[in-house]
Specification:
It contains eight helices and no strands.
């Protein structure tokens, strides 16, 4: 996301609310700031559901159109990002063909770049480990993958995941716990 360097989550949330207030007050051109800030994670969610760039791009445009039309209804009871992700999640659920399954965001753009001092052997080991994790993630039930993605890749709290998915907080905690346990067991079998 394109936040200003050093912005804390609270500062970003304040900034989002301030921008939304200014947009609702007539400064419509500021909407581009929200798009720039959240376009990448929304597009990533689209890829998770639709598995191709064109549909993910269409999805992203549809989500931001809905957000723009609904900005006056944003009450600020949650973070703006939570409100936005809920719109995106519901749009994806309503638009996804039932035959297609959710694919973890971890699989999208998950290439590991070489770090300082990485040898070809280290890179091979790291890529093999990444591939094993991704394969294990794909074996998890969809509801677990959704919770894991929102928790780890979008940085959402349990309460925010509840708002986005409609799952009760205790169910979310259970899904994240069980997913981590299943992943650990699957990965231990590989070693």
């Amino acid at each position: 996301m394109n936040y200003e360097a050093g912005d804390s989550p609270a500062e970003r949330n304040y900034s989002d609310r301030l921008i939304v207030g200014q947009i609702v007050s007539g400064q419509k051109d500021l909407f581009r700031l929200l798009v720039r800030r959240y376009e990448r994670p929304v597009y990533g969610m689209g890829l998770s559901f639709f598995r191709n760039a064109e549909d993910a791009s269409d999805f992203t445009q549809e989500v931001f159109l809905k957000v723009y039309r609904s900005l006056s209804r944003f009450e600020g009871r949650s973070r703006f990002s939570t409100w936005l992700y809920k719109i995106a999640y519901n749009t994806a659920l309503n638009g996804v063909n039932r035959r297609k399954e959710y694919q973890s965001l971890a699989a999208e753009g998950a290439g590991i770049e070489a770090g300082d001092g990485d040898t070809p052997e280290r890179m091979l080991i790291r890529n093999a480990a990444r591939d094993a994790v991704l394969a294990s993630l794909e074996e998890l039930p969809e509801r677990y993958r959704v919770c894991i993605d929102l928790f780890f890749f979008y940085g959402c709290s349990y309460q925010e995941i509840e708002t986005i998915t409609g799952f009760p907080v205790n169910t979310i905690k259970s899904h994240v716990f069980r997913a981590k346990k299943l992943l650990r067991e699957k990965l231990e079998r590989l070693t």
